[in-house]
Amino acid sequence: MNEKIDRLEGYSHNDYMNTLKLTIMSEEIPLEERLIAGEKYVQEGGNGAIKAKYRLLQEEYEKRNGGYQHG
Q1: For residues 66 and 31, is the Cβ–Cβ distance under 8 A?
Q2: What does the pLDDT look like over 7-44, one tens digit per residue?
Q3: Res 68 pLDDT > 70
Q4: Residue 65: its pLDDT value, please?
Q5: What is the domain range of residue 53?
Q6: Number of domains into which the chain is organized
Q7: Does residue 33 belong to any structural domain of this protein?
């Protein structure tokens, strides 16, 4: 039973991370929401290309607004 629960928790976490990835990468979503998703993604240990995209989004926001305040 514990093995099934662990597996389901893993699936749930994977789904959460994938949702964050989609939010970060979607140009249809407002930049602020993408930044919030990026921050959560990094806090959850996300790395790689998605983290790099989040960093680029931070730079874009800073250029437009003069800084990004982490929530």
Answers
A1: no
A2: 999 899 999 999 999 999 999 999 999 999 999 999 99
A3: no
A4: 87
A5: 19-60
A6: 1
A7: yes
Smallest CA-to-CA distance from 20 within 35, 43, 41, 39 is with 41
Distance between CA atoms of residues 1 and 22, nearest Å: 32
Judge contact between 56 and 46, C-beta under 8 A: no
Say what the pLDDT of residue 66 is: 78
CB 54 within 8 A of CB 42: yes
Tokens of 68: 């990004």
The residue type of 1 is M
Q: Which two tokens stand for residue 66?
A: 């003069």
Inter-residue contact 32 to 58 (CB < 8 Å): no
DSSP state of 20: H
Residue 71, pLDDT above cutoff 60: no
